Amino acid sequence: MRIPATTKNYCSVCGAAPKIWIEKRVINDKLASDWSLSPSLRKKIDLRESSICPNCGNSRRTRVLAQSILKTSPTNHMNLIGWISYANKRNLKVAEINGCGQLHQYLKGLKHLSYSEYVPAENLKTRVKNLLKGISNQDICNLSYKNNQFDLVIHSDVLEHVPDYQKAISECKRILKPTGICLFTTPIIMRRRTKDRKNMSPSFHGSGESDNYVFWEFGQDILKKNKIRIFFSEPKFENYVFAVTK
Q1: Neighbours of 4 (CB within 10 A)
Q2: pLDDT values of the chain reduced to their tens digit, one per residue, 246 residues
Q3: What is the pTM of this model?
Q4: What DSSP string describes 15-40?
Q5: What residue spans of the chain are helical by DSSP H?
Q6: 35 near 217, Cβ under 8 Å?
């Protein structure tokens, strides 16, 4: 199904100005039930996960993450392509921890990108394939990167899938330069409190793969508790980009 473009009718990733964005139903019935989503809230999250740019394939979530990356620059860039040129001229070091959807196809243009995907030890074939492609295997809770290494660390919808999200946040802060910033997305329903799902019935994001197991359903309480600030906000779509610094 296709919907009309919003008033912000340009893509912050590729710079296209589509007349239509592509909307899809993303949240399946089981996840909607596990998450206790009302029909209206389910629709909001579907829009967060779709509203896809027909030119580059980026969803509303990854486009807003790109828009946040643009805000880290002192100059005004209209799209991520321009920012990447800026970042390369200044030799900025960026860590992309687990691919940020279709955004990764553009981030590959960074000269100093450290891109990693976490693959469990039992999935040896995929680990070997990634290694042959030059993709580092990094556990966000135990990163091998040195302290104070990166100007920017980014990840998208990762924290809810790790058992110790506070350790993950700490690791991201550790590898930042003193002037660096970590930008990330994770699903948060602001009017709720965080739920630890480890002792609840199993729940999965995405299409149900076992590595998309959900450990946490985040609420607003994690922000103050972990010194996380909202960097960019679209409350009508439950769409937020968060930031942590040293």
Answers
A1: 8
A2: 333 334 357 899 999 999 999 999 999 898 999 999 999 999 999 999 999 999 999 999 999 999 999 999 988 888 999 999 999 999 999 999 999 999 999 999 999 999 999 998 888 899 899 989 999 999 999 999 999 999 999 999 999 999 999 999 999 999 999 999 999 999 999 999 999 998 888 888 865 455 588 999 999 999 999 999 999 999 999 999 999 999
A3: 0.93
A4: ----SEEE----S-HHHHHHTT--HH
A5: 29-34, 39-49, 60-71, 80-89, 104-107, 124-132, 165-174, 221-225
A6: yes
